[in-house]
Amino acid sequence: MSNEIYYLVVTAITISCLHTITGPDHYLPFIALAKTKNWTLHQTITWTLLCGAGHVAGSLLLGIGGIAFGLSLSKITWLENVRGGAAAWAMLLLGTAYLLYAVYQLSTNKRHKHFEGYDDGALYVYEHKHGSVVYPNERRKVTPWVMFVVFVLGPCEPLIPLLSFPAARQSVTGVVVLVSVFTIFTLACMVAMVLLGYYGVAFFKTEKLERYVHVIGGSTVMICGTGMVFMGW
């Protein structure tokens, strides 16, 4: 494995784990549904994996944008003579753009989806801004299939700049490796967090970090891209 792919794999693992752990919506809904619907452990894991697979699939669809960007930069021949080359610059530029977008979202308090259980034992999903009031008619009761759709439509955006690097290198192997690593660690982390909750293990207050998950992801990618361009990683 080349040094570049090694660093990308480490970044992919970091992002997939942080994205899952700091996002309670990746595991708390499954724990809540398991309790309210009396799911068996097998049912709980099955729905977790199914929704996780939908989440990954949605992320990969977004990742096509990163692949397209990387391929377009790979055609600019003079860029290969610039420090770091087209591949490293592709990831650095997209990582920086994503970080700026994440900071903008954070500063403007954009609406986002949120899961919450209520006294009637049901689980609901709704869009809200931090500090805003959510009215009953704005909520939608969560069923397993509703949750699957929510996960498909809520992909992990940092995968876009990650895939731009192997695309700019025109490395199919690199794309496959990164996609495989991202998929395996996302699903494994989701299942691990759900199992902890299923057996009654208390979580740290990750809700406070949830607002910063995109900033963390964008920063991670940008740092990796910076290292490849300016530090010879």
Name some characteristics of this structure.
single chain; 233 residues; mainly alpha
Rounded to the nearest angstrom, the radius of gyration is: 19 Å
Strand count, sense and barrel status of the largest sheet are: 3 strands, antiparallel
Oligomer: single chain
Rough outline: elongated
- Beta-strand portion reads 5-15%
Instruction: Kindly report how far apart the N and C termini lie.
Output: 13 Å
Strand order of the largest sheet: 1-2-3
Q: Number of helical segments? A: 9
Helix fraction bin:
55-70%
Unreliable runs: none
Q: How do the helices and strands follow one another from N- to C-terminus? A: HHHHEEEHHHHH
Q: Which class do the helix and strand fractions yield?
A: mainly alpha
Number of strands: 3
Tell me, rounded to a whole number, the average pLDDT. Answer: 79
In brief:
This protein has 9 helices and 3 strands, in the order H-H-H-H-E-E-E-H-H-H-H-H. It is mainly α and 233 residues long.
Break the fold down into its secondary structure elements and pairings.
Layout: H1 3-21, H2 28-36, H3 41-74, H4 85-108, E1 112-117, E2 123-128, E3 140-141, H5 144-152, H6 159-168, H7 172-198, H8 207-210, H9 213-230
Helix pairs in contact: 1-7, 1-9, 2-3, 2-7, 3-4, 3-5, 3-6, 3-7, 4-6, 4-9, 6-7
